[in-house]
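#lab-general

N.A. 3:47 PM
ok so I finally got the sequence cleaned up, no stray characters, all 139 residues accounted for. can someone with queue access submit it? mine expired

B.Y. 3:52 PM
send it over

N.A. 3:53 PM
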Amino acid sequence: MPIKINQDEKPAMNLTPMIDIVFLLVIFFMVGTKFTEVEQQLELTVPEVSGEAAATPMVQRHVVAVFKDGTVSLDGEQMELAQLESRLTAEQQRGDHINVVIRGDAEGAFQNVASVLSVCRNAGVSDLGISVRLASAKE
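B.Y. 4:20 PM
back already:
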């Protein structure tokens, strides 16, 4: 069986799919332009709404630090648990979305962190997180 060394056909690129896509894009943009022209020619008055109803609630991000001795701070400001609850409740009632990250001391009692978690839940905070640090690999 003889092996062909010469190639009779040279490879050719088929441009048909590319031309089809270009035509589809042209048609798409032509139709889209027509719809915007028709919409602008309609004689109607669009209803208005108050800007207050469309306002989105602000997202408040807070860091609550629970120290080894049980003291608590909200964004660096020392306070009691009752003050923390009243502050978070007030922000929640304003309609703000509250995000709280709790950072507890590793050597402190877990009861202190649990108390802060309970205060946040009582204030209506649903987005809670606890900050931890990854342990380094010891050799």
